[in-house]
């Protein structure tokens, strides 16, 4: 990728940058705060629409140069134009624009080292196009001893990647271990499980099983008979208790018959007395002044001669009248009139008492009749019930024991018949465990992924060896476990400048393998004056060899460097702009 032109306006510290890149290698230099890193950030915005300076889009206005309202980046590379607008965050990409992790890793040289081991592994697999097809994986699994049937089950698992497939295989192995434990009754072990056999069992004789079965049947029949007998006795006992209760209730009621008759005689005599007294008082109280239509009619009706049924109805009416007002033509007695209401109330109460006496007599006579029908209750021996209950309990216990014995004999016969089948099933589960563990082992990072990665690492490690020779720096390498080393020292143990050199060599290798031929290196001033020439001549040689088409290097310098290779162009950045006149360069 060859960047031909770059235009940056009001982005961070780059207020006005407009350059045409005439050489494959461009060295942007200047004092601290001149805007060099802002140019590098502008490259990232233009190519990928991302920034490392802020995390939220609402903060994009902060990336506009102080005093300005908006900014933009525009660059032309390989005939394609990339643009980015601030603060709107509008990213314009041309058709056919290069994107992805590989471009991000040459725009930010430190990116690869910051990845996790799994991310590095995935990145290199894509970068080197070393992801194997299903046919190759089948071959590797076959070489590892995985059976064909399991391989066919395994290949679809890889759609989610090796780590996920490894976990699935482990889970299947765990399930197979559980199935083995269900059969064997103990925890699976790689050695003991391979040799495990179901314990030898002596099958019981058929006669013993028949005898046990017959015993169960006989006991069930005896128990049923006893339970029926007990049910019958319990029913008789309940009936006897109910009959006795009825007899006792009827006897109690019948015993009161004479008392009820005697009371009726007394109450009837009292009622007759009250009725006579009421009539007497009514007669005495009947001559109080009677004025008005009702009284005049009563006297008129009483004075007429009536015959037949009409005479009877008149008598009833006159009786009702005299019961309320006294005799139609009698004399008035105030004392009798005062006593009459109380006497009427007493008579009415006695009427109720007589009715109750007659009801009690009828109930007592009915109880006596029922008592004659019931007769004596049938006696039941409760001791026989208690004894029968004990027999039922004993038979239940004996039947339970007989059933247990029969089940034990049946299980022994079943176990003897299925011993070989049980051993074979356990063996199958054991082989299932071993098979899935082998698959998990092959899918683990140090299995097939490691074999694949070993081939993937060959080209990048070769380029790293070439870079070490051309720069005279330490020997870089990426190990199968994805650790990065420099002369066998871990990347994490390197100094800041050593890490910078390592990142630069890795970014150069990635750029070549990806076919980007682009590399962006910021802060090259972290290198001392003895190591800087090695970097510049290494880049110059790669450009001459066609290994890179564009290298952008940013660093803080005191002055524009002199005596550079012909394919390196220095550009001095000052106060966010390109310094183009000699006075500015001299002043710098």
Keywords:
alpha+beta, Rossmann fold, five-stranded antiparallel beta sheet, five-stranded mixed beta sheet
SSE topology sketch:
Layout: E1 3-11, E2 14-20, E3 25-30, H1 36-48, E4 71-77, E5 80-86, E6 90-92, H2 101-107, H3 111-114, H4 117-127, H5 134-143, H6 148-154, H7 162-184, H8 192-195, H9 206-255, H10 257-284, H11 293-302, H12 308-325, H13 334-374, H14 382-443, H15 448-471, E7 476-478, E8 484-486, E9 489-490, H16 496-514, E10 518-521, H17 532-544, E11 550-556, E12 568-574, E13 577-578, H18 582-587
Parallel strand pairs: 3-11, 3-12, 10-11
Antiparallel strand pairs: 1-2, 1-4, 4-5, 5-6, 7-8, 8-9, 12-13
Helix pairs in contact: 2-16, 4-15, 7-14, 9-13, 9-14, 10-13, 15-16
Instruction: Count all strands and give the number.
Output: 13
Structural class: alpha+beta
> Which regions are unreliable across 5 or more consecutive residues at pLDDT < 50?
none
Seen as an oligomer or otherwise, the chain set is single chain
Separate helix tally: 18
CATH topology of the domain at 3-98 and 516-587: Rossmann fold
In the sheet with the most strands, the strands line up as 2-1-4-5-6
CATH homologous superfamily of the domain at 3-98 and 516-587 - what is it? P-loop containing nucleotide triphosphate hydrolases
